[in-house]
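SUBJECT: protein chain
CONTENTS: sequence, structure tokens:
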Amino acid sequence: MPRQTLTQKIIARRLALGLTWAEIAEKIGHSTVYTTAALLGQMTLDAGEADIVAKLLDLDPEEARLLTTVPYKGSLGEAVPTDPLVYRFYEIVQVYGTTLKEVIQEEFGDGIMSAIDFTMNVERKADPKGDRVVVTLDGKFLPYKKY
């Protein structure tokens, strides 16, 4: 089964069962962000976690096993994203990417923020003018090696 087909099945089953990503995350003991990424095909689960998800979403053993395989990461393709929410993140990087690079490298030196030794959190922050979305990206700094 292609991984994209399993992703579509997972989304359909989750909606049909009325489950939230947070509820599934709680069952397997990971953050909502990590769990969602794994079930959308961008991260892996171990066999025990995959079995829990399989029971929860009525997936067969082959589908559960697929959740444990290392995925081909990157779900957006090469074109500019058209989904408005995803596009806003693309726009943020387009507008602020060079600023982030300058500020991070001024503080830490020549290097990058890891997307492997990394966590992300999404929170709602109440505001009288309309609730705010707070996205925290927390990655280890990796300096470039001189050789």
